[in-house]
Amino acid sequence: MRLAQHMAVASDRVRATAIEATEFPDLSRAYQVMAVPKVVINDRVHFEGALAEPDFLGAVLQAAGAGR
Question: What pTM value is reported for the model?
Answer without folding.
Answer: 0.76
